[in-house]
Specification:
about 240 residues, alpha/beta, 8-stranded parallel sheet, 5-stranded mixed sheet, elongated, rRNA (uridine-N3-)-methyltransferase activity, rRNA processing, methyltransferase, transferase
């Protein structure tokens, strides 16, 4: 049996004992049905992995002994911030999950003029909690030991106006540049992915005002979730750690 990787939200210290949080305890104790003496790999977001052994497992609680820890860096050299306009149904969850697997560092969900998703504050908070769980689960699955940051939902213009030193990119079907023609080196990218209906002409002009560069992925029109993952992959191949 492969040793399960479990995220622990508090700092882990070798040589101590701790209890897994409720969600992890349920997964380990009830879903995986693991018992005392079995091994876990724990990570706390510090980029370290700790060997651990279950010392008690019940239906509600799993207590573990934390053994040695070691640095296990799976992070890309490219610092990639995804600004993704909200998409319908499971598309947003899929985009978040796969972008984490591909090495995105920060994700900001956005609201734009043509955004087809309308959520009241209560539903939006529940969505945000669900997206955070998806990020953690993706890290457990893909081997990342740092948790990408999930930012609060903001408007497209608020996000574009934020000041940083990243290369700012906006996908546009009539752009003259591609990712392969962008000059090297690039260490930080802020990638904007619009809604299913695309950005309005006014929004495209606004992105230009905030120094976003329009880039083209190819001759075909892609769905928003395909666009995000294709662009992230191309950026990681050119500037990151995908071969």
């Amino acid at each position: 049996m492969r040793i399960p990787r479990i995220y622990h939200p508090e700092p882990l210290i070798a040589g101590t004992q701790t209890s897994l949080d409720d969600e992890a305890s349920n997964h380990v104790g009830r879903v995986l049905r693991m018992t005392a003496g079995q091994k876990l790999a724990l990570f706390d977001g510090s980029n370290n992995v700790f060997n651990a052994e279950i010392i008690e497992s019940t239906k509600k609680t799993v207590n573990v002994q934390i053994n040695e820890g070691q640095l296990d860096d799976k992070e890309s050299p490219l610092d990639l911030h995804l600004g993704q306009v909200l998409s319908r149904g499971e598309k947003m969850e899929f985009t978040i999950q796969k972008s984490v697997e591909l090495g995105v560092n920060t994700i900001t969900p956005l609201i734009s003029e043509r955004c087809g998703v309308k959520l009241d504050p209560n539903r939006l908070e529940k969505k945000h909690q669900q997206w955070q769980k998806i990020i953690i689960s993706a890290c457990e699955q893909c081997g990342r030991n740092k948790i990408p940051q999930l930012m609060p939902v903001i408007t497209l213009e608020e996000w574009c106006a934020q000041v940083d030193d990243s290369l700012k990119l906006n996908l546009h079907p009539r752009a003259s540049q591609s990712i392969n023609t962008l000059p090297l080196p690039v260490k930080k990218v802020r990638l904007l992915i619009g809604p299913e209906g695309g950005l309005s002409p006014e929004e495209i002009a606004m992105t230009a005002k905030h120094h976003f560069t329009d880039i083209l992925l190819g001759p075909r029109v892609l769905r928003t979730e395909t666009t995000a993952l294709t662009a992230i992959t191309a950026l990681q191949v050119r500037f990151g750690d995908l071969g």
